[in-house]
Structures are given as structure tokens and as C-alpha cells.
Here is the input.
Amino acid sequence: MAVLEQGNRTKLDEVLGVPVSDTYLDVTEAISGRITSFVTRASLPASGTYVITTACIGTSNAKLVLSQRKPGSAYAQVDFSEAFASAEPSSRTLDLHAGSVTVDVINLSPDGSTWGTGAFANVRITPWKPK
Here is the structure.
């Protein structure tokens, strides 16, 4: 199993390439076997448009759920959800506010076995730069 996981993680790193220097979040985690999701947080320095990039290897279908709450409010300022396929990075831009962002990545096609398929997913948040 370790060989399969390492192979999937290596493929994911190859597909994504090296993150840019001003990346605010770059997390790769297993989403297979008993662990079919992960939650992570980032702190953004300023309000603005950000690029959210996701990719996965070892599963055919994953989901990104991103939320951001306004300080002092019980309601989400930003509540974004999107399924994404594996092998190729998928990017979208979102207007986010300065402060904490919570990101969930969920394997929508878990195989149910103890060890799974060795699937890994990555999520990155970088500032949007017009071309």
C-alpha cells in the first residue's frame, strides 16, 4: 500500500508543480481508506480575488467545500462548493476577505476498504494576478 500511496503522491506533485512564492495554502493529504476527507485552514492577509486550485490522484471524484465567516457573525460570507475530477488541476477564482478560510476536501468515490486506493488530494490558495 505504501508504494501505491507514494506513487499517487508523486504523480500529484508532478501534476501541480512547485507552488508560487506567495501561496497562502498548499496542503496535500490522503483521502482514501479510512480517511476520506481532510479539513484545513488558511489566513489571508487582505480582501481580494484569489485562485483556488485543486487536484487529486487515486480517485475519480472529489469535492471542495470552502467557507469564510465574517468576524462576529454566525453566517458565512463565502460558502462555495464544487466537485472536481482527478489527474488535472482545476482552478477557479473567488473573492475572499482578509482573515481565516476553512477548506474541506472530500473523496466522493471512496472504495470502502481499509486501505483504499492510495488517493491524495491537494488544495492551493494563491492571489489572482491579471495577465
User: Anything to note?
Assistant: The chain has one domain: 2-127. The CA atoms of residues 66 and 85 lie 17 Å apart. DSSP finds one helix and eight strands in the chain. Residues 2-127 form a domain with the Jelly Rolls fold (CATH 2.60.120.380).
